[in-house]
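Quick check before the chapter quiz. The format below is the same one you will see on the exam, so make sure you can read both the input and the output lines.
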Amino acid sequence: MSLKAGLEVHQQLDCGKLFCKCDALEAGNDRIFTRRLHATSSEMGTVDIAAKAEGIRKFTYFNKSCNCLVYTDEEPPRGPNKNAIEIALQFAKLADSKIIEEIHFMRKVVVDGSNTSGFQRTALVATGGKIKYENGTIELDQICLEEDSCRHGKNKDEYLLDRLGIPLLEITTKPQLKTPEQVQNAAKALGRLLRACRVKRGLGTIRQDVNVSIDGGERVELKGFQDLSSMSKVVENEIERQTNLKALKGCEVSETMDVTKYISKDRGTALACKLTGWKDNLGTKDSPKGHIRMGQELSDYAKKAGVKGIMHSDELPAYGISSEETEEIQKQLNCKKDDAFVLVFGKLDMAKDAMKRVIDRAGINGVPKEVRRVTPEGSTRFLRPMPGASRMYPETDIPPMTLSKIYVKIPKTLDQREAEIPLNDEESKQIVSRNLDKKFYDLIEIYDNPSIISRLLLHTLPNLENDENIIVGNKAITKVLELVRDKKIAKEGIKIALVQVRKGEEIELMNENIEAEVADFIKNLIDEKIDFVKEKGMGAIGPLMGPVMSNFRGKMDGSKINELLIKEIKGKI
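Here is the expected output.
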């Protein structure tokens, strides 16, 4: 078995929406409206197979994101967003891709409800390029700029408009990855390079798809990876699924028979067909790991017609179908020992459509070319047929744009930013991964102590926010750091001072006699612990530092306290 895989990554850009002037987070008017979408033909008169598979459905949309009419499909698009164009060009230069001279937006037919207009606008920006990943290099195929889709609502065929129209960079690679580990490492490297640009952060802002095929199989697109840590395992499971499926031949299917009168419970029209030689191929939820579960596959295809699923002979009698009814259906279909059958329930037209999809899938040899969604359990489920070129046609509302005259500055990569920060590797990575390096350099200008600034950004401020629900503004931070710089408070007192400023209290400054107070305290402490000091010698410094700091933390610099303690102990031993 030989794996051939490539990546398709979609990254949201942080610059508003692509074809309107609204900010991506702007609160809308909570308007609710509906649209009925159906597949349309391309310029060549053909209908895309993926669009056709969706059928005609009515969708409900909840608009809570912006008040303009562009993304309710009641007004032509504006733009495109110039910042989005520039970010796309920046990434293309980072990847050493070849930027095209002029971009033309195209319409890509999408009638699954994820876009109010029934199509998604997308434009090719650059081709080629390379990205290095751990122990390898992968070549890019193309870089596109497109608009994001709606999010699913609570119920079937309900969508939210808050994500619709956010600019996306779509980066596709060549199918050069040979192991699941390479897939995961390449996706990680691609994500890190994207974060050198102005991209959104957080759950759902980047979506990775993987195109997978094995020897003798077809290309299958796995959609919906959110967690990179699971990518390798999902690809392994998909390899196993395709390997098992490759040996399965499509079966001969009988004519569809109406068996409604043989079913005692009213479930609507009941249609059935025989799958010759497919007994035990359909499987059940109790089938062993690695079973091809063709019953589940056929059910996913049937659901595209609007039915809830199918029933089949491997799992019957069950679900209200008795053994007598099962035997009668087998008799009517003339099923032999090794044959299986499928049952579909619903309104007549819907049931016929569902059964046709089941029959078409059952007749395919081996691995079909399709798009599958990744499940939380690490497996994949059928989503739709693999789309083709028939879903693309020119966008007539947006004029072409020349790219050759647009100058962009190439941003620094995360690796470069981490290397420049004067901290250890771990702290540098944390600063950059949280996008705090600009703030780090700003605060260094106020108080030139990298370790203290790092502790402030990575620990002190987050702890105040998470543990005490205290959010400290930039003015308060600046004021406290200036006091530390001017030696008016100790660096150990930064947290206390920040809380005092946030609460509007007076900051407790170091007094002029503090060194004498600390020296007296240390002298009395050592006199009290003299036997311990003489026994431990200089080893007593650590244990005695605790009580001194608990009394004077924030009132005097810890290093100065340590000097006084060492001096006093040396005088006693």
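If your answer matched, good. The longest strand covers residues 136-147.
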